[in-house]
Write a structure and sequence with these properties.
- It is built from 7 helices and 13 strands.
- The protein is α/β, with parallel strands linked by helices.
- A 9-stranded mixed beta sheet has the order 4-3-2-1-5-10-11-12-13, with helices on both faces.
- The radius of gyration is 18 Å and the shape is globular.
- 42% of the residues are buried.
């Protein structure tokens, strides 16, 4: 059963609209292959506020401003994702563009995420040859996390198995060990900005770079977030509720992009 907010939208719709608002006109955006929410957020921004937004769908680069209705597709490798493509990248070109771009934003996930926003897509277990759970692997995520203007981390669950004191493996470097440790590694990108979960939005404290609670979703308490996080989370004195979608955002989302209601299932 899909969790609904007091405003009648699903949590997935709430998250989609939050992610969409972080995108600015002129940005170049992409998302991990399995992230339907992040992909929908890119489309929402492109078709409402950001006419010069460049969207990476699959291995294509496109502008969705004049697309009337976005046909649903389930992964970025689905051939329909390339339907509106203006240009098709080779694998080498994708990485070259990432290294050059200072306007790129990428949304990614992880099997594990630690308090500094380091992520693990490799697997869970002490022995790399006998993993308890095998992940999809880093693929292009390490390069993205190293170079883009900033990354958002978006995960589909919020529990102590996901948010851990230390990742078994690091496939995407966040703020590494905190403080200026990422800078000392020589990574040029802006690092992680937000962590988005079914319970809340988190960001990072400016000096220590430790994860900090930014807002809780409707119906969620601060105590719930703390209890389901496997490390000590920075909790401000006042924690607001995550801003809900506007009526206009929801109407556009449901009638022009998510017409099959995938975010409401």
């Amino acid at each position: 059963m899909v969790q609904k907010t007091e405003e009648g939208c699903s949590i997935d719709e709430l998250i989609t609209c939050f992610l969409s608002r972080q995108i600015e006109d002129g940005d170049e955006v992409g998302a991990g292959a399995g992230s339907a929410i992040a992909r929908t957020a890119m489309q929402l921004a492109a078709m409402t506020r950001c006419p010069n937004l460049v969207v990476r769908l699959g291995e294509t680069r496109t502008n969705l401003l004049n697309v009337g209705l976005v046909e649903a597709f389930k992964t970025t490798n689905d051939g329909r994702a390339a339907r509106w493509g203006e240009y098709k990248y080779t694998d080498d070109e994708v990485m070259l563009q990432v290294r050059k771009a200072n306007r790129s934003i990428f949304t990614m996930g992880g099997l594990q995420v630690d308090k500094y926003g380091n992520c693990n897509l490799i697997g869970i277990g002490d022995d790399p040859k006998r993993l308890k759970i095998r992940g999809p692997g880093g693929i292009g995520a390490p390069e993205m996390a190293a170079h883009v203007k900033f990354i958002n981390i978006q995960v589909g669950r919020h529990d102590k198995r996901t948010f851990v004191e230390k990742c078994d493996y690091i496939s995407q470097v966040g703020w590494y060990k905190g403080g200026d440790s990422r800078k000392k590694l020589g990574l040029p990108g802006g690092g992680p900005r937000y962590v988005i979960t079914p319970l809340c939005i988190m960001d990072f404290e400016e000096d220590t770079k430790r994860m900090r609670l930014k807002s809780v979703h409707p119906g969620v308490t601060v105590e719930q977030v703390v209890e389901n996080t496997g490390f000590e989370l920075i909790v401000p004195e006042t924690v607001p509720q995550t801003e809900p979608p506007t009526k206009e955002e929801l109407e556009f989302l449901r009638t022009r992009i998510d017409t099959e209601g995938m975010l409401r299932r």
